[in-house]
């Protein structure tokens, strides 16, 4: 142990704090682990009483998630032996796989809309944040406040006119419409976060570059951008997570072509209600990337969450 | 370097041309950079808002576009403010807001304080606690209905295990008395980490030297906690409450998936109610007035709150 310090908690305190925090963390993790586990259960294991923590894993949930199936007569089943491993799984229930489900499409939509809107909002946000940080923009404070206040509106409140607007512009249920919408929603946060990151970069770097004969533009992308890379990356992650998770606009403005995964997953139904293993499988595939991302990038993310809120 | 060549070239030419060589003026760049953002926000946020205000004075219905739209003055507003059902949803919202903020502040602060004891591996455990808030509320909320199932649900099983009650004797989302708590529990589970992170930032911003000085003055740990820790974290905590308050006032996805506003309308928060009016009953004009009332409420409450926050900060 290093020297005595009045502010350093004692070992006993650390132990107690550690145990309490770890306990809370484990309890909080339980529902998430349950989602992952349920994805690998058979339908009967999923609704067993008492709830089963140990079970024989099966891919039924994943097969049901990605396929559509129909019930067949015993004659048909006897004549047509299963051709694939997933066909074999559904045979247990006298079913045959007749085609893919819509989950793949919805997931792909989430990726297209998520990354598209993230790219746009970070691109536009960086430009605006740089201008706000470095130049005298007239009405700067008002504009910044205006940008932030757009976050206060309930999504449903804006959804009414956006619904009308999209309908008359032919943007409803299109990827472009959703990308534009999410970009606008994310921009406020992006500008706010990025301005903080760019404020931190000393102006001297750019001034030196200007003296070296760079134009403002060159100074921006050769000096400022590389310096702000970490900030831009963590802002991007926030925008991506927002777009990835968004539900209200998605459920109101999309129904088919551009529907993302969050409105789709709760609608996965089986015989007599929700097919929980399939729902859990869909949720696992959808949530797991975010969980892994969060754990891997924790240093930047945790800073970002508080940074956006605490600064000012 | 090419830069110096450019510089020499610029110096050798008349001022007007020089500016072209050196690039656009600062002011132009500033506008080029800001304009797209402002334009997009105007198009997707402000323009719809103005449109909503206009619609709120009419009897327009989206599903009957052929019907003549009439200007009805303040009648929509009048009807909303005198509608007792809407006051019930306001009450449900207030219950939800109060208890989620209460638990999140309490647990969030306690966790932050414990994490700040700097035990080994605290950053990994912090991240694990943060996980729920990074996930899609709709997807997670939907799955919680499974955890809340009587008998087979994990939540009911855990409660039964701890209290000895029969796990099939209660239904968190099916009973009028329990449903408001079912949404408070999931929201607290999901968003406590947010309050925790902001408190943690607050705790870490307190310089050690203040505690050292207090120690020299022989202030007890208890006293240090109340006279140093709490007042210094308070502005952070209040900011966390502001953010969570606004978010929970707008709450839609999580609750719509969990209870859908039911049973009856016990958990019908304002956003859910608004969605029903606008997209199920298609009373567009009426719903627009409703939306404006909500927006003004949030904006008004938030402004008052920010004033209080600034006072606390000044102290």
TrEMBL record, chain A:
Top-level lineage group: Bacteria
UniProt-listed InterPro entries: BP-dep_ABC_trans_perm (IPR050901), MetI-like (IPR000515), MetI-like_sf (IPR035906)
Keyword Protein transport set for record: no
UniProt domain ABC transmembrane type-1: residue ranges: 107-297
Residue spans crossing the bilayer: 15-37, 107-131, 143-166, 178-198, 219-244, 276-297
Gene Ontology cellular component annotations, sorted alphabetically: plasma membrane
Membrane disposition: Multi-pass membrane protein
Pfam families per record: BPD_transp_1
Subcellular location: Cell membrane
GO biological process: transmembrane transport
Keyword tags: Cell membrane, Membrane, Transmembrane, Transmembrane helix, Transport
Family (UniProt): Belongs to the binding-protein-dependent transport system permease family.
Protein name (Swiss-Prot/TrEMBL): Carbohydrate ABC transporter permease
Naturally occurring in which organism (per UniProt): Pacificispira spongiicola
From TrEMBL, chain B:
PROSITE patterns in UniProt: ABC_TM1
Record-annotated ABC transmembrane type-1 domain positions: 90-305
Source species, domain of life: Bacteria
Matches recorded under SUPFAM superfamilies: MalF N-terminal region-like, MetI-like
Assigned keywords, A-Z: Membrane, Transmembrane, Transmembrane helix, Transport
Membrane topology note: Multi-pass membrane protein
Main location: membrane
Glycoprotein is among the record's keywords: no
Subcellular location field: Cell membrane
UniProt GO cellular component terms: plasma membrane
TM spans (from-to): 29-51, 96-115, 127-147, 178-203, 224-246, 287-306
GO biological process, one term: transmembrane transport
Similarity section: Belongs to the binding-protein-dependent transport system permease family.
The protein, known as: Sugar ABC transporter permease
Taxonomic classification: Bacteria, Pseudomonadati, Pseudomonadota, Alphaproteobacteria, Rhodospirillales
